């Protein structure tokens, strides 16, 4: 297991740290094994541009190809709708994190709890806090961060990678589910 440093200075994750995803195929394998994955997207996804496209456009491609329901956090729901994509729900990210700690929560569709939660586009400190809560109070939920910075409280996280590598990782995720 490769170790990396948290992106935020002075982050103290404790002895249990996220496994570093050095190859995007690892994330693909985890998502494919998941019975009920959920993608939580923050406003940052509408603000980051990668190769002439916003991050949200890559995430729409991923959600459609992998058939993952999306929870839009904050005002990003409107950004999804502008692009012709209807999220499964729109809730504050902290609320989603809280609901995921409830083993009895039946999910947005009433079909049962989620087993894998993917996070992207949230402010770093907020995402870190949500992931810490899930790590300690919802061990049945595995977490993956799709941002290009290491989140030690997740189950799996990309390391601190360049935008060039991040784009390659995202494209690999999408391509592995397409078709």
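Q: What amino acid sequence fits the structure above?
A:
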């Amino acid at each position: 297991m490769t170790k990396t440093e948290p992106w935020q200075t002075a982050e103290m994750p404790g002895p249990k740290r996220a496994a570093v995803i050095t190859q995007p195929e690892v994330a693909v394998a985890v998502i494919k094994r998941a019975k009920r994955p959920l993608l939580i997207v923050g406003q940052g996804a509408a603000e980051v541009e990668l190769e002439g496209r916003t991050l949200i456009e890559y995430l729409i491609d991923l959600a459609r190809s992998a058939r993952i329901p999306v929870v839009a956090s904050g005002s990003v729901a409107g950004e999804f709708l502008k692009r012709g994509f209807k999220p499964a729900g729109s809730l504050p990210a902290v609320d989603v994190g809280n609901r995921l700690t409830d083993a009895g929560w039946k999910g947005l569709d009433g079909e049962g709890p989620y087993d894998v939660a993917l996070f992207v586009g949230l402010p770093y400190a907020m995402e870190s806090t949500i992931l810490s809560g899930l790590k300690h109070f919802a061990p049945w939920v595995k977490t993956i961060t799709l941002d290009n910075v290491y989140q030690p409280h997740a189950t799996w996280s990309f390391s601190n990678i360049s935008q060039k590598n991040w784009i390659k990782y995202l494209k690999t995720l999408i391509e592995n589910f397409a078709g």
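Q: And what stands out in the fold?
A: The mean pLDDT is 92.
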